[in-house]
Design brief:
With 186 residues, the chain is of the alpha/beta class. It is 26% helix and 26% strand.
C-alpha cells in the first residue's frame, strides 16, 4: 500500500514536484470552492485587471458547490463536480499562480500542458463520498459571489481531505495509465 502524503496549503513547487500520478494525499489547510460561473467571473475579473477575491498563489480550488448545512453542521454534502467543465478556465488560473485543482474525471490536454508549464497538480476526490468529504471541512465561509448560492466562492478550512494525484506536473495521468493497464491485462 502506498504511503499517504500529507500536504498543508498553500503549496510550493517543491511539494508539487514530489507528487506523481496515483499518489494518495491528505490535504489540510485552506481550499477555495468554485464551479463554472465563479470560474468565468474570476477570468473576467483578470481580463479587466480587477483584483480577485483571493490570492491565487499557492492555492487549490475544489470544484464543489456544497449543499446547505444541516443545523449544527459546518457544511452540507461536499462532493466533487466534473472537472472537465473548468477546462477552459484552469490554464489561465494556473498561469496566475494557482497550484492545483480538485475534482472528478479527467482534465483535457491544455490543462495537462498547463500543469507542466506552471508546476501544478490536479487531484481527484472520490465521487459519491460527499457526506464523508464534508466531515473534513472544519470551517466554511463565503468570500465572493454570494448571489451564486451553493456555487459562491467559499474559503474552506479542511483537515485530512483525502485525494489522489490524478494528473501531475510531469504529464502523468491516472486516467490514461489506468486504461493502459486494463488493455495490457486483457
Amino acid at each position: 500500500m502506498n504511503n499517504i502524503i500529507k500536504l498543508v496549503t498553500p503549496l510550493q513547487d517543491t511539494q508539487i514536484r514530489n507528487l506523481h500520478a496515483g499518489d494518495m494525499v491528505e490535504i489540510s489547510g485552506c481550499l477555495y470552492s468554485a464551479r463554472d460561473t465563479a470560474h468565468q467571473r474570476l477570468v473576467n475579473a483578470m481580463d479587466r485587471g480587477e483584483p480577485l477575491p483571493f490570492d491565487l498563489n499557492g492555492q487549490l480550488i475544489y470544484y464543489v458547490g456544497p449543499s446547505p448545512a444541516r443545523p449544527g453542521n459546518l457544511s452540507g454534502s461536499a462532493g466533487p463536480t466534473t472537472a472537465g467543465r473548468m477546462n477552459t478556465f484552469a490554464p489561465r488560473l494556473l498561469e496566475n499562480g494557482l497550484k492545483g485543482m480538485i475534482g472528478k474525471g479527467e482534465m483535457n490536454q491544455a490543462v495537462a500542458e498547463a500543469l507542466q508549464a506552471y508546476t501544478a497538480v490536479y487531484f481527484a476526490a472520490v465521487g459519491g463520498a460527499a457526506a464523508l468529504i464534508a466531515q473534513t471541512i472544519k470551517s466554511s465561509r463565503i468570500i465572493a459571489y454570494p448571489e451564486l448560492g451553493p456555487e459562491a466562492i467559499r474559503e474552506l478550512i479542511v483537515e485530512r481531505f483525502s485525494v489522489v494525484v490524478a494528473q501531475d506536473c510531469y504529464g502523468g495521468n491516472v486516467f490514461g495509465s489506468g486504461k493502459q493497464a486494463y488493455l495490457v491485462s486483457h
